[in-house]
Amino acid sequence: MLEACAEGFTVEDKTHRRWVRFGSHTFHLPLGEHGTRDDPEIQLGQVKRMVRHLQIDARCAERELPQLR
Amino acid sequence: MTSYPLLFGFRDVIQGDGFIARVAVQGRALMQVEAPEEVWVEGVNPGGFAASGHSQAQALESFRQSYLAILFDIASDVADFAAFQRGVEEFFHDTNEPASRDWDAAVAEVRAGRTDTDWLAKRPADTPRSIEVVRVERPTAQDNALGDGAALAA
After folding, report:
1. Residue B17 CA, distance from chain mean position
2. For residue A47, is it left (φ>0), alpha (ψ between -120 and 50) or beta?
3. C-alpha to C-alpha distance for A41 and B7, rounded to whole angstroms
4. How does pLDDT run across B23-50, given as a tens digit for each residue?
5. ipTM field
6. pLDDT per residue over B88-115, tens digit each?
7. In this complex, do B47 and A16 lie within 8 Å of one another by their Cβ atoms?
8. B50/A19 touch (CB, cutoff 8 Å), yes or no
9. Whole-model pTM?
10. Which site among B65, B96, B102 would you substitute to test the A interface, given the most A Cβ atoms closer than 10 Å to its Cβ?
11. Phi, psi of A59 (to 5 degrees)
């Protein structure tokens, strides 16, 4: 989704969070020990909020990830 | 879905390589109850992170832990206190603009009496937001203080 909808984005894994940067904004996704990375519902909620904060084109994001609708 | 506009105050002591810093934030967040057991809290200032839980209390605790985790990431990433201070200030000022608009709308609902809670104190919605990052040169017990916790913006 990021490749298609957020040209110029960067992703960097830190100790506790995955930092996704796009434009002038950064979103911090959970990763690691609490298992959220493997929980599809939590992951989807995080991605929805990342799209919102990074101001990614919502229509593009929904086209790439229909679960976001 | 019910939205609650929150104000929160946290105080933390963070260790970095060669420094100790005290971070005090007065921030805003938006809580959304999406389903009976699905509660989300999204940062407005600072923006850029969200947390969830099966209850309001659990979502708030998860939000608190997420906030701390990001401070720890910033501390791990920098070589000195000045860089830590810049990183934390940048994090705080990365406002979640869409959530900020929803936060304002949620405050209007609280003021109109259409949203209320009995599990949170209320504070004025125009309570100033701030971030303070101070180097701790000489730790003293009198610097210990609890944060304000979370309150409903009204």
Report:
1. 24
2. alpha
3. 26
4. 999 999 999 999 989 999 999 999 999 9
5. 0.94
6. 999 999 999 999 999 999 999 999 999 9
7. no
8. no
9. 0.93
10. B96
11. -65, -40
